[in-house]
Structure prediction request, 350 residues.
Amino acid sequence: MKEYLKNVKEKLLATSLQFLLSPFRTKRTLKKILNLFSISITSFLSVYLVVTNIIDYLEFDTVTSIKTIIEKQSDFPTISFCSYDKKDIQNISALWFNNENLDKDWQNHFSVYNDYVHDKCYRFNSGFNMINKSIPLKKSNRPGRDDGFDVVIQKQIIINASSNDSVLLIYIHNHTLLPRTTYNRNFLIAPNTITLFEVKRIYDQKLGYPYNECLKDVSKFNLNKTLIEYMKNNNLEYSQKECNRLCSNLMYNQMNCGCTVNFDDFIYWKCWKEQDSIQKCYDSFMRNFNEQNSCFQYCPLECDSFSYDISVSSTPFYNETSYFKYQVVVYYDDLKYTSISERPLLDSFD
Prediction:
């Protein structure tokens, strides 16, 4: 045993751990106490720092990086138009894009879709034209108002119409989104005004679990088959907001209120004026329905998102014709976008 301890002592003396033997090599009591105290404090601090680092790592904090990325050419947003009074927009009298006059063949640059609330609507840069033929998506070559989208829309004046009936609705969005209704998502444009929309783009990429309560790959989530099939068939890019809208219609139909809605429908506009029994069922559904509780299991939050930051200004102009006129200008302030990304504050190596 003595021989074993002697060997251990010799090995310790030959390493950087020899300081552990210092209290035992000295014969002075005070020095021995000081050495023991020093070793104890050092050991405690070492353990404390290791434990603190592990705790900090398990907090899964992130560092956000914001970059500005410049492009030579940028995808232009899709622009949807609807008339508040459900009347068809009579005519597009002027159309410019990238400083090119498109008046004569404007039908080749717009598509038509049916909105449940506002009936017939038009969409610019959707990837399709009036006869539903696929066309290339437009790109912006230069920033600024002169090289953006500039359209003048004429609409028949309705006698004794309310102020709301003359309003035009516009929704600016990514071409991968196909809004079934512009309700609560639009800008309202008054007649005989020029309205400017200055657009900036933001890409937001978050880390997935455990850093955030979101999913990088939503396809791996246990989505409701009815919802996912509908989105696939309609080429809808997944978003929690769109999924919740579809989910609410699905949940409402399961109530068997007597007013069945399609995924394209907006429940409020279709069922709120129905007979009393349906109205009571609808009211009960709206009081008790909660997106977080009812649709959370079907609609996870996506980690990656894309959005437009839009600044709006408008001014009236004098109009002598028998039509309402609306001039809408949409443009990029510059051909760059903001990229927001995250990285772990501490990784396993740290």
Notes: The two ends are 41 Å apart (CA to CA). Residues 73-198+309-335 form a domain with the Acid-sensing ion channels like fold fold (CATH 2.60.470.10).
